[in-house]
């Protein structure tokens, strides 16, 4: 973990991280992306199959949904810093398929210093916390996204944040139209808070 240096240092050191065992099976580490001066940071869970192969955040189905929601909320993806609470793909094999598994509490904790460093470097005015893994990393185990979504909360230390569901939950939803709308509404709250 770098204690000094900027984002370039983070990107240089991340591939060598051995803080947990996820690096062993993943293709590669997937660093956060976006301007280091971004006013808004969005934090997801962990790279998925597509992200692990391509080495970029949110390029699979959840990323496509996120892209649509960002457009609807009036957010330009190139203006925000996008990252994950856990930087390696966690999966189990089912035949040839690699099925996403939620990172464990220990893996979330092990990866937290990287996210903390990204926050220190970018210093976003607002953080959008997407899903329970990002919430656990940034807001603690007692935080409930379903209860607290779509309103201003604060990260430890006081940085303003808005929690919402993870875009992959919307992708899988039986009530897609309703849940997409609610996701966009939460993002709009974040836009309004930024002013
Ligand atoms: N889900 C995430 O949380 N992050 C990604 O980069 C892709 C899917």
UniProtKB/TrEMBL annotation:
KW Flavoprotein (keyword) present: no
Keywords: 4Fe-4S, DNA damage, DNA repair, Hydrolase, Iron, Iron-sulfur, Metal-binding
Domain Uracil-DNA glycosylase-like: 31-188
SMART domains from the UniProt entry: UDG, UreE_C
The organism's place on the tree of life at top rank: Bacteria
Family of the protein in this entry: Belongs to the uracil-DNA glycosylase (UDG) superfamily. Type 4 (UDGa) family.
Classification via NCBIfam families: UDG_fam4, UDG_fam_dom
Protein name per its UniProtKB record: Type-4 uracil-DNA glycosylase
